[in-house]
Amino acid sequence: METSENEGVSIPVENVNRRSRPEISRGFDRLIEEGKIYGAELNSSVIKKSGGGGGARFLVATRPSRKKLLSRWEELFRNQLAPDEFLAAVSGKIQEYEHGENLLLFGAGRVIYDTKIFHLGAPVGGMTLFFYSERDQRFGWKGYIGGRRLRIVYIEQIQLRQRSSGYASALFQRYEDLFRELGFNQFRLKASLSVGKYYWAKEVFDCSSKADILWKK
Question: At residue 189, what are phi and psi to the nearest 5 degrees?
Fold first, then answer.
């Protein structure tokens, strides 16, 4: 099993500050050396032609150029953490659960965190998070002209064989604090996640008018 060298590490609020471009680049260097940075193909036609069945939302692809990596990181994370710091923060050990075989993938307009979840060394599930931005429609044409955008964490999938362990609740409480400090505006998720609608209702997520999406108040 492959796990993060920084397991269990949480990032204190005071450490969420803008990093220099050289610091961001060094963070990419460390993750590239560990084999944790790839590109992501998100075109559904390409995925279908490649035989990517089972509802696959992306394919692992060639790593983008350094320029594109740096640009996308600044766009979505505002360089408030270096990539290796971010990976440590999202993959920290909770209870007896840990992330392994985890990757950061860069596709058109988004960054993807994909991981397997292990309990006492045995695989018990997996999770995929999409990070992206979209135009903030609350401000109409003024928002469009002013370039107002929402930064979004989209929970594409989370699967756990042990759903009553309390792990998911503890994990997303940590994530809520982290992503708030990083300036993200919304959590969104599929209503059909295997963890179940009831859990998300307890955690104060509401169904929106858009099909299959929930987001935090």
Answer: -160, 160
CATH code for the domain in which residue 181 is found: 3.40.630
Residue 60 lies in a domain: yes
pLDDT value of position 91: 93
Strands (E), 54-148: 59-61, 97-107, 110-119, 122-135
Whole-angstrom distance, CA of residue 173 vs CA of residue 160: 17
**Residue 176 pLDDT more than 50?**
yes
Our count of domains for the chain comes to 1
Q: Is residue 57 part of a domain?
A: yes
- Comparing C-alpha atoms, which of 136, 132, 94, 135 is closest to residue 115? 94
β-pairing verdict for 97-107 and 110-119: antiparallel
Q: How many angstroms separate the CA atoms of 171 and 72, rounded?
A: 25
138: containing domain: 17-216
Model confidence over 8-31: pLDDT tens digits? 444 444 466 789 999 999 999 999
Contacts of 79 (CB under 8 A, 6+ apart): 18, 19, 20, 21, 24, 73
Q: What's the CA gap between 66 and 198, in Å, rounded?
A: 42
Residue 79 has pLDDT above 60, yes or no: yes
Report if residue 173 sits inside a domain.
yes
Residue 9, in any domain of the structure: no
